[in-house]
Amino acid sequence: MTATLPTKLGGDMNYIARELAFEFLRPVFVGDTITCEGVVRKVVPGKDRLEVSISILCTNQDGKEVLRGSTEGIVRA
């Protein structure tokens, strides 16, 4: 379930992933509150799209990392 959060962020930006890599660091339990942050690390403009690289970090309510990841893909212009 934790891995669905980064895909929601991508969907909000009309992002099409070509590659996803996740590292699950801690278990997540029912009732936990998870915060997911994505940082755009690279943008390369193309003719009708932007090629982007994004790092991902999800933390629990105690600020402990539960998922770390990265993705590369495109945003259509």
Report on the architecture of this protein.
The protein is mainly beta. It has a single domain, classed as Hotdog Thioesterase (Thiol Ester Dehydrase, Chain A, Roll). It has one helix spanning 4-12, and strands at residues 15-24, 35-45, 49-59, 65-76. It has a four-stranded antiparallel β-sheet. The mean pLDDT is 89.
Write the layout of secondary structure elements.
Blueprint: H1 4-12, E1 15-24, E2 35-45, E3 49-59, E4 65-76
Antiparallel strand pairs: 1-4, 2-3, 3-4
Largest sheet, in brief, is: 4 strands, antiparallel
Across the major sheet, the strand order is: 1-4-3-2
The low-pLDDT segments are none
Number of helices: 1
Structural class: mainly beta
Q: Mean pLDDT, as a whole number? A: 89
| Integer tally of domains | 1
Q: Gist?
A:
The chain is mostly beta strands and 77 residues long.
Protein traits:
mainly beta; single chain; 1 helix; elongated; 77 residues; 12% helix; 57% strand; Thiol Ester Dehydrase, Chain A
